[in-house]
Design goal:
The chain is α+β, with helices and mostly antiparallel strands. About 20% of the residues lie in helices and about 15% in strands. It has two domains: about 220 residues, Jelly Rolls, CATH 2.60.120.620; about 35 residues, no CATH class. The strands form two sheets. It has a seven-stranded mixed sheet. The protein has a three-stranded antiparallel sheet with strand order 7-6-9, with no helix packed on it. The longest helix is centred in the N-terminal third of the chain and has 18 residues. It is globular, with a radius of gyration of 19 Å. The protein binds 2-oxoglutaric acid.
Length: about 290
């Protein structure tokens, strides 16, 4: 375990986006405090419980997903409270400072770690990307603490600076000392997706009362990358038509650099009944009629 203190910054700090961008580039992570208040966290925990009950969400079936961890994928399809988080303005400006404009939502997942869980294999969330490491961030993982993240209940562990390593992952969890991202409910851990990290063990219940760790992962990618979860297919078009415009764009009903994402030369928002000119880049690349 590393004893260094965590990089952390308050959500209302001046120049938040610039500060987080600097920390993420330098150390591979930053914690933003007080993004959500306690009432919002309690409502979201109740929502996670509701969805888990409704869908009878099982524990993971492998060590990586966790035999004592329940995951709900495609959260945006599960309720407006989850959708609101994805378009949180504070977080979007922060992500834009790191990934640039035109970034997309990559996925939304609840990670609910129960007592008895063991530590997850340390990994990089962008491990499937074939760019040689290190490389600038193409993906950002935000981990939202809905309950306090503590060393005993499964707080995320990470290796500061590991986004600069050439290897995709350490040979074993024991190879390098980790920093435990202990943070109060309402905080968000922002990770460069090349940073080695993993969910921690939940040892509560051994000698203390059992405590569940409720966390949400909301991931974003640069506008030219493939999203991890297939959000365009994950929700029927007529349902997405009722979502806020910013969320529609983040899901993929948008064009990057006026060309990537077009549908038959038209803007994809047209499929949701919105009339938008594609302003296709080719118009600016040569003579027009
Ligand atoms: O639950 C956590 O703290 C992290 C989980 C994670 O990194 C993953 O499942 O990819």
């Amino acid at each position: 375990m590393v004893t260094a203190s965590l990089n952390s910054i308050s959500a209302d700090a001046p120049e938040l986006a610039k500060g987080v961008d600097a920390m993420v580039n330098h150390d591979g992570y930053a914690v933003i405090r007080d993004v959500l208040d306690s009432a919002a966290c309690a409502e979201l925990v109740a929502e996670v419980d509701r969805v888990e009950r409704e869908f009878e969400t099982p524990f993971g079936k492998n060590d990586f997903e966790g035999f004592h961890t329940r995951r709900i994928f495609n959260l945006i399809a599960r309720g407006p409270r989850f959708r609101k988080l994805v378009i949180n303005e504070t977080m979007l400006s922060t992500i834009e400072a790191i990934l640039g404009d035109g970034f997309l939502l990559s996925g939304t997942t609840s990670m609910h770690i129960g007592p008895g869980e063991t530590d997850q294999r340390l990994h990089a969330d962008d491990g499937m990307i074939s760019l040689p490491r290190p490389h600038p961030a193409t993906m950002i993982t935000t981990l939202w603490a809905l309950t306090d993240f503590t060393k005993d209940n499964g707080a995320t562990r990470l290796i500061p600076g590991s986004h600069k390593e050439t290897a995709i992952a350490p040979a074993s969890n024991e190879e390098c000392p980790t920093l435990i991202a202990e943070m109060p409910a309402g905080s968000v851990l922002v990770l460069h997706a090349s940073t080695w990290h993993g969910g921690g063990p939940n040892t509560t219940g051994d000698t203390t009362p059992e405590i569940e760790r409720y966390g949400l992962s909301i991931q974003y990618v640069a506008g030219w990358c493939r999203q991890q979860q297939n959000l365009m297919l994950g929700t029927p078009r007529e349902v997405v038509a009722g979502y806020p415009r910013r969320l529609q764009e983040l899901i993929g009903y948008s064009m990057y650099r006026n060309v990537m994402g077009h549908v038959d030369r038209n803007h994809p928002l047209g499929l949701l009944g919105v009339d938008v000119e594609p302003n296709i880049v080719w118009e600016k690349m040569g003579k027009t009629e």
